[in-house]
Structures are given as C-alpha cells and as structure tokens.
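anyone else get weird line breaks when pasting these?? whatever heres mine. first is seq + tokens for prot A
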Amino acid sequence: MNEPSKTPVVRVVMRLLQGALIGLGAVLPGISGGVLCVIFGIYKPIMELLSSPIRNFKTHVPRLLPVIIGAGIGFLGIANLLSFFLEAYPDQSVCLFVGLIAGMLPSLFREAGEQGRSKGSYISLVVAFVVVLSLLCALNLFSVTITPNFGWYLFCGFCVALSVIAPGMSFSTLLMPLGLYTPFVDGLGHLDMGVILPGALGAIITVICLAKAIDALFKHYYSFAFHAIVGIVIAATIVIIPFASFADALVPNLICLVVGVVLALALDKFNSRFPKEG
C-alpha cells in the first residue's frame, strides 16, 4: 500500500471513496465487495488483517481505517434507498439487479482467470452452477418459505462477511433466492437492532472462523475457487429473474435490465482507473 507520489490527504480521500464503493458493492445485488477489494488492490492487506488481527493491528488498521469508515457509510447509506425501491417497484428493482450482475460478469470472469485457467477451473464452475441451481430450484419447487428470525439474520451476516473475504461472492446472490434480501436490507436501512445485531454477530463469527481458511484457499486454489464463485453467481441470478411477471411490464423491465448492465460496465471502467495498492 505504498503510494509515495500522493499526498496523505489525497490517499485518505481515495481510500474513503474506495471504501464507500466497497460498501455499496457489498449491499448492491450483483456487485461483490470482495471483487472491488481485489480491483482496488487492497484485498491482500484486508485479508492479512482479518486473518491475524492482533498481529497486524498496528501496521494495517491505520492504513485501512479510511477504507473501513467509507465502507460503513456506503453500506448503511444505500440500504434505506434500496428498501424503498424493492417494496415500491419489486420486479423493476430485480431486473436492475440482474442487469448489474450480468454487467459485472465479464469483470468477474476476468478476475477468475487472473492466475490462469485449466480444465479443472471450468469443471469447478459447472459443478458449482449445477449444485446451486438444483438447490435453489428445489426450494422453489417445494415452495419452501423462510421466515426471517434471529438465526436467519445470523446467516445474513455470514453472507455479508463472505462477500468480502471471498471475492466475487455477493451476499445478495445467496439471500435474494431465499427471500431474505429485502427484509435484511429493510432492517439495515431502518437501523433495526433486531436485524443489525445478529447480522453483525454472524459476520464476526464468519471472519473469525473462515478468514484464514478462505485466504489459504484463494492463495493455493485461486482459479478453482474463483470459477466456482462465477458458477454460483450465474445460477443464483437465473433463479431471481421474474419470468412469471416479466411480460406484464416488458418495457420498464427491459429498460431496468439494460440500465443495470450499463451501470455495471461503467463501474468496471471507473474501477480500472484506480491504481492497485500493494
């Protein structure tokens, strides 16, 4: 994270902005906070801090604090707005989110192949796709209804943490097909402690239990793990498309879909302008 050519103020402002985008990416469907960490080049120091917080506290926290603050602002600041649109325009919101996911897929696939691809990479993508699609279709087929409660909000916190420590995994990808995304985001937007506390607890437990393991997984099996995430994202996206009601509002749904794709591609282009930090 050495940036000798930039003044301290510029570095802080840039990290605040990057943190805000990471926070937005963590809560917006289809955009992974972890992928943005990779794109901004701060995934490695974040994982070092999460994997060994005591040992790396003094060296990493001062440098990452603006990112953490910015992420919190971006995460909570967008939640209330999302809650409104999900309730007022559910199908159009989902179509916009599907467009965001589709627009981010080229970037996600590019990141997945950063360390090369093999036949095993594609096998992991296909296996993850088939397994997740089968599970989610089975939930829909048997009309399994999930009622949000303390335990499920713990699971939401697990997904939020996973979206940061596992690049490419957007927590909305897992929560939307289960019907948990809207109540979780609504609770965050209204600062509902019944949602925030179990969510935070789930995130902390996940980081403590999985940060080192996931860090090791991506260090040693980067291509396999990342391609599996691509498969998960594609499968979960297919499930949330509102096929049944799509034709009822075809034009606005298509417009939202296209806008989502354009926004995601624009964000990817914007991200490419940021130099990666070491």
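and prot B, same format (seq, then tokens)
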Amino acid sequence: MNLSAYFEQVDLEDLWSFHDDFFPHIGDRIVAYTKDSGFPEIKKQHLAIVGVCEGRKAVNNGGCQNAPNEIRKKLYGLSLPSYDIKIVDLGNIVMGATVDDTYYALADTVATLLRHNVVPIVLGGGNDLAYAIYKAYEKLGQIINICAIDPRFDLGPDNADTNSQSYLTKIITSQPNFLFNFTNVGYQSYMVDRQYVKLMDDLHFDVFRLGVVQSNINDSEPLLRNADFVSVDVSAVRQSDAPANGNPSPHGFYGEQLCAMTRFAGLSDKLSCIGFFEMNPSFDINGQTAHMIAHAIWYFIEGYYDRKSDFPYKDKQNYRRYIVPMVGDNTMELVFYKSKKTDRWWMEIPCPEDRRGKYARHLLLPCSYNDYQKALNNEIPERWWIYSDRIMG
C-alpha cells in the first residue's frame, strides 16, 4: 500500500516561518510532505518524522493527539546539528475509524521505513502507540529489545483493554513473541504496584528506579545502547520541566537528563526507532514541553550523526578482547570487548550454535567498565546471568 494514503500533509506556513537568523535551521533541510512537493521519497534518507494523531487510548490525557504539530513548531526552528542530515517529514497519520486502524497504519509505516534502513522518529499521541511499533518489528520477524523511559511499567491484567498504561501486557502476551528484553528507565515506586515489580523481576526484565538513574545519568548509556526501540513517555519528566501531560508528577527526570538519554539512544548503532508520547498541548505553558521534546529530538539527531559504527556484531577487529577466568571454576570465563573508537564496553553471552542465528544481535550485551571490574573481583554481573538464562531457556 502507498504510505501516503495514511498521512495528511504538513502545512509549513502554519508550523513555522523562515527565520532571519544567520545560521541554517533543521526546517531548512527537512523534506516534508506538503501540498506543493508531494509525498517524499524515503529511499536513501536517514531519519523520518512520523506524527500520529491518536489519543483515544491515552488514560486521563485526551488531547495528546494534537502534539505532533506543536513539537514540529519548535523543532523546525532549531539549528542544524549536522550539515549532512537527510530527514523526511511524512506528516501525520490520520486517526483511523478505530484505534486498531491507526495501529495498523503506524505498524505498516514503521516496518516500511525499517526495511529501507530509515530510522523513524515517532511523535504521538498516546503511549499505547508503542504496541503498534512493536507490531512493525513483528512484521519483519525481528526479535527486539525495548527500552521505555517511563515512570510506570504500563502493565495491566491479561484481559485488560489495551491503553497507554497497559500496552506492555499486550506485547508480553503476544504469540509468537518477538520481545527479547524490556528495560524500564526511571520508574517511580509510588506509581507502580508491588505485584508488577515482582512480575518484572520474575520475567528477568531490567528495571531501574528514578533515583538510581539520576544518581549517574551516564549509567543509562549501556541500557539505551542495548535497545532497538526507545519509547519516551513525557510524564517521566518532572512537571516543572514538562507540564503538558494529564498525569504529571512533581518528580522525574530534568529536561537536560532526558536530552542526555536521547543522545545516548542516537549514538547507538543498534537502535532503529524512537518515539515520544503523551505530550498534551492543552496543559502546556508557553510551549515549554513542546520545546523540551524538540530539544530531546535535536540531541537524538546529533547522536545519530555522531555514530561510530562500533556495534561489535559487525566487526570485532576494532576491539580489545579481555578474558576473565572465574576463580573456583576452571571451566568458566567471561569475555569482554572494548571499542578502540569509543572506549565503550560489551559482555559476550554464551550461546549454543543452534541458537546463534536467532539471537545473533543479542549475544554482545552493552555494559560498563564497572561490570568488567566486577568480573576481575570474581563477581559475575547480574545482567550476564539474566541474559544467559534467557538464551539458554
């Protein structure tokens, strides 16, 4: 199907006016779907902006479907992070007759972009749109890791209606299942039921409380580097920095911390999609939240164009290999790789030959120098055990 059938055109005059500043803007280089230009060619592009005007399943946040154009108004006027950018703006996916229709259109769009090695930047809309993006990877038969920057786990009962605060249950229970790992960055304990904390532990998913991540935001880098798809719920940012949400909290990440994390995501060669959800313009103050999200996207784009092509699965020649024998077990050793380009670290996860084809993209787990130090002290990092059990199980 022709993707243009899903989209409404971008009205550039309504979104932004060309500035008189003496430097080029992102908006100068974005190839947008307009009445005059027609639907853009996606081949040979690097990034694609996809707005989704869907908020019917956004819990207590009706109006978030109006976010994409508000974000564009701020994004288009920012300076160029790179002079070589190749970005298309496909416009906004029109709300379908049913929510499932919108999901289908988004899944088809994202899958098509991924087939052409174009990274979608999805502007929601409700957080339940993450389920549609998962379905795009399912279409491609690709087993993925999802990382959610979110104050909640978005879980619900198995028979619950899929919405912005329960979509993860739909993903976990899908059969056949294409989710290898889920990581939550920044959950807030007073927003999460204890049974769901236990469930996440039982599923061996990686979950990190807000305070733990805030204590050193750089520790989030290996978590984001491990993701194929990053989902950002704007309610993960404190209300003072991001008031445009129907479920705000006085606590959360600062805007600059979100920007640091989206830059980490952009730097990752593994990451192939990012989405920004739950921003509600009706609650915004002078466009503050729209501006913050635009900044986060700017940092993602900057990170993307600063990628070093050091995903170890591609080429191990550019790495130093460290083998750490475990004292007391003559048969066990941990293998680490350190990039000569970036000094970033990975742990190798053992895998039987008959499963290597299925899990090839997940056998080198991003980690930190601290994990290597633990191994030197004869302590096996917990995430190594979790991933080993998942592959062997």
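btw re prot B: The two ends are 39 Å apart (CA to CA). The first strand starts at residue 7 and ends at 8.
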